[in-house]
Design goal:
This protein is of the alpha/beta class. The protein has two domains: 183 residues, CbiD-like, CATH 3.30.2110; 159 residues, no CATH class. The protein is built from 13 helices and 16 strands. The strands form five sheets. The chain has a five-stranded mixed sheet, with helices on one face.
Length: 377
């Protein structure tokens, strides 16, 4: 899971868990401390920064270094990222900011150091070739430089190199390789604050996946609830990795974004129970936020001609998969019906965009148990 930066809204879980700081906030704190040391010879510890919404957190320095090489003097400060109670892959990572003088009139120049990725594909907020330091963290660092430059009557022409030792390995646990961010992590954050178990980082990554696919000219993408359904869909359609959007439970987020950023064709793949929830109109398929209505599912068996006894047995079943097994034993195509209903919901969400949608339902072994395309709608 990548880091999260979002408001808690009314999420009762997030409100009782400890918040943390994004990599962008840590990089900004390191930049401010390093630039101040470059100007004055002294590191502020702790160092205080201002976040986009006005919060002013302070950060203890884990690293304070000054030196000189063939390119001139530099100062470097490091912050150990505290992600609070969020299961963030960058929790406890060391975020380093090295600041040195840049040519007069150059302003602030960003460099990717060890463990920070480089953008290699179009469709992201930064053009190919740029360090994967996102726009909001860049603005925060630029503002920190402007503030100190004004205090010390300095031009503020500096090069900022951000590093995350071990970041290349950590990045393998994120979506960066699929999005074309190679060599390490992204420096992220829109508010500077990590909200525990927030959904916004995942949704942000879904959006960027769509952007990259569109920029690459792909005409067919797939959003799947997990690795099993993704493998099944990829085998069915021979899609490249770039076309595979890690939708997870956030069907609504993907469909609503595609409505504004359409592609010619979308395949939705998912476990049978997840797709039942989509077919019943749920946009968030997480088990903690939506449930299968087995009474309605049993009624769908009735639409397929099931006898009353089977309908009653299905209504009393423990799980959606149990209902599916009952339907399969009776030779009733419940999987296809669920796929068709899920497709109808998806088509309603993406309308009026002319996106061709098909749906593939799988069981836990990866076997396809239901399909729906345009002809089956």
């Amino acid at each position: 899971m990548s880091e999260v930066a979002a408001d808690t809204g009314s999420d009762p879980v997030a409100s009782i868990l400890r918040r943390g700081w994004t990599t962008g906030a840590c990089a900004t704190a390191g930049t401010r401390a390093a630039y101040q040391a470059l100007l004055t010879g002294r590191f502020p510890d702790p160092v205080t920064i201002t976040l986009p919404k006005g919060e002013q957190p302070s950060f203890a320095l884990a690293i304070e270094r000054r030196g000189e090489d063939e390119r001139g003097a530099w100062a470097e400060a490091g912050i150990v990222k505290d992600a609070g109670d969020d299961p963030d892959v960058t929790h406890q990572a060391l975020i380093l900011a090295r600041v040195r003088r840049a040519p007069a009139g150059s302003g602030v120049i960003f460099r990717a150091g060890e463990g920070v990725g480089t953008v290699t594909r179009p469709g992201l907020p930064l053009p190919p070739g740029e360090p994967a330091i996102n726009p909001v963290p860049r603005r925060l660092m630029q503002q920190a430089v402007r503030d100190l430059a004004g205090l010390h009557n300095d031009a503020g022409d500096v090069e900022i190199e951000i590093s995350v030792p071990g970041g290349a390995e950590l990045a393998k646990q994120t979506w960066n390789p699929r999005l074309g961010i190679l060599g390490g992590l992204s420096i992220l954050g829109t508010t500077g604050i990590v909200v525990p178990f927030s959904c916004s980082a995942w949704i942000h990554s879904i959006h960027r996946g769509v952007d990259v696919a569109v920029a690459a000219g792909l005409t067919h993408v797939a959003g799947c609830t997990g690795s099993t359904s993704e493998a099944a869909v990829q085998a069915l359609h021979g899609l490249p990795e770039l076309a595979l959007l890690d939708m997870g439970d956030f069907a609504g987020a993907l469909l609503k974004y595609l409505r504004q950023h359409p592609v010619p064709r979308l395949t939705i793949g998912g476990g049978f129970a997840k797709l039942v929830k989509l077919a019943q109109g749920q946009m968030d398929l997480h088990s903690g936020r939506s449930q299968v209505d087995k009474t309605v599912l049993a009624q769908w068996l009735g639409d397929l001609g099931a006898p009353d006894a089977l309908i009653a047995k299905a209504a009393a079943a423990n799980t959606a998969l149990e209902v599916l097994a009952l339907a399969q034993a009776a030779g009733l195509p419940l999987g296809d019906l669920v796929a068709a209903k899920a497709r109808a919901v998806a088509m309603e969400i993406v309308a009026p965009s002319a996106i061709a949608v098909d749906v593939v339902a799988v069981e836990r072994t990866g076997n396809v148990v239901g399909r729906a395309d345009g002809a089956a709608a």
